[in-house]
Amino acid sequence: MRVTYCTDLDKSVVVTNCEKRGWIQVGPEDDWNIYWAGTLTCRSLFSVDSGYRMSDNQIINHFPNHYEISRKDLLVKNVKRYRRDLEKEGNLMAERGDSKYLHLDFIPVTFVLPADYNMFVEEYRKAPQSTWIMKPCGRSQGSGIFLINKLSKLKKWSREAKNPLQPQLSIKESYVISRYIDNPLLIGGKKFDLRLYVLVTSFRPLKAYLFKLGFCRFCTVKYNSSVAELDNMYVHLTNVSVQRHGAEYNSLHGGKLSVQNLRLFLESTRGKQVTERLFDQISWLIIHSLKAVQPVIATDRHCFECYGYDIIIDNKLKPWLIEVNASPALTSTTANDRILKHKLVDNILSIVIPPSGYPDIRWNKTPSHEALGNFEVLIDEDVLYYENSAHLERLRQGK
Q1: Each residue of 221-253: pLDDT tens digit?
Q2: Residue 98: partners with Cβ closer than 8 Å, 6 or more residues away
Q3: pLDDT tens-digit profile of 166-190?
Q4: Least crowded by CB within 10 Å, which of 72, 157, 201, 357?
Q5: Domain parsing of the chain, residue ranges
Q6: What is the torsion angle, in degrees rounded to the nearest 10, for the CA atoms of residue 313, residue 317, residue 318 and residue 323?
Q7: What is the per-residue DSSP string for 117-184?
Q8: What is the end-to-end Cα distance of the chain in Å, rounded?
Q9: pLDDT at 169
């Protein structure tokens, strides 16, 4: 059958993967089967005003309110609510020790400004001179980020930004302020973070897959936690959009290292068992960040989404979720990058399209093992349900 696709992103990795399958490109006003859209396009398509209704053979690459996990303030709000709900249920996952969550402590202590300003000040005074990182909630690529270690610096910023800490004023932009991970794991003296790709094909039941070809993004300047380097973003921010402007940036490898090589490095320096535990913890935090937004995401059988997870590992080998991106960059900065992103899009399309090769939302969204390519199953609640049901049936039959 003739498959048509539409995209408003000028990305060769999307177009070449669709053309390779023999699909025909059409415009947004035409009859399309697959739409690889920007987040704004998706939001307008799902808005009440648009009145657009998708047919059974149409799929699109974002959930209507994907921002519940990708907006920094909403991610924090949803994780905090998830913890509270589990605590009320008496769930062991919400167990605490020394006032910290033992199992769900995977995001740094974070407050939303201006709303949580007083709570932030109270927390700051417990450890004066601690370092915090300020990020605008709705921006990306390192834009508008800065570090503070004194309340006076925050107040100075507030004055210069026309008092955004006064909630009574109508301010469009809110910020999150998080405790800075000032003991990051270093390789070659440099700070790095992990960029991992997570494909979600359904939130209820939750079906999520992890792309095995993620990578580390390195700073170009050696890490230094001194106050003198607090404003040097080449020391602190791993975003390629920031680092590529630095004098030390290497365009050949783009300051990137594959996750496989990171694993080998850690196995040789820290041991295999410790490394396995770290990667298990990373899978754990991804699954529970998705479960945190599961009740509020408007799940729709027409939708799938590839999220870009940014994770920092500290020197005790504890992973921290820094943020989640709803539109991770598909632009290639190196030859390896181009190959990786081509495989990423190819594998995503193989998973979200039924074996017939024609989109159909009535399909149960359970791809074959071969269709997974470089993805691995993180969680499939459908499979868990059937496994649990089969287990209960065996118990009932006394087997």
Answers
A1: 888 877 656 766 667 776 666 666 665 666 656
A2: none
A3: 554 445 568 899 999 989 999 999 8
A4: 357
A5: 109-180
A6: 10
A7: HHHHHHHHHHSTT--EEEEETT--TTTT-EEESSHHHHHHHHHHTT-TT-TTS--S--EEEEE---SB
A8: 47
A9: 44
CATH number assigned to the domain with residue range 109-180, chosen from the 4 options 2.60.40.10, 3.90.79.10, 3.20.20.60, 3.30.1490.20? 3.30.1490.20
| Tokens, residue 264 | 């080998």
Cα–Cα distance, 240 to 134 (Å, whole number): 19
| Residue tagged 């300020």 (tokens) | 134
Please work out, in degrees rounded to the nearest 5, the angle formed at the alpha carbon of residue 310 by the alpha carbons of 339 and 301. Answer: 75
Q: What is the pLDDT of residue 324?
A: 95
Nearest to 26, CA basis, from 5, 2, 56: 5
The SS3 call for residue 386 is helix
DSSP per residue over 15-36, as a string? Answer: HHHHHHTT-EE--TTS--SEEE
Q: Which two tokens stand for residue 82?
A: 């998830």
Q: Mean pLDDT throughout 367-374?
A: 95
C-alpha to C-alpha distance for 252 and 267, rounded to whole angstroms: 26
Residue 101's CB is within 10 A of a number of other CB atoms, namely: 17
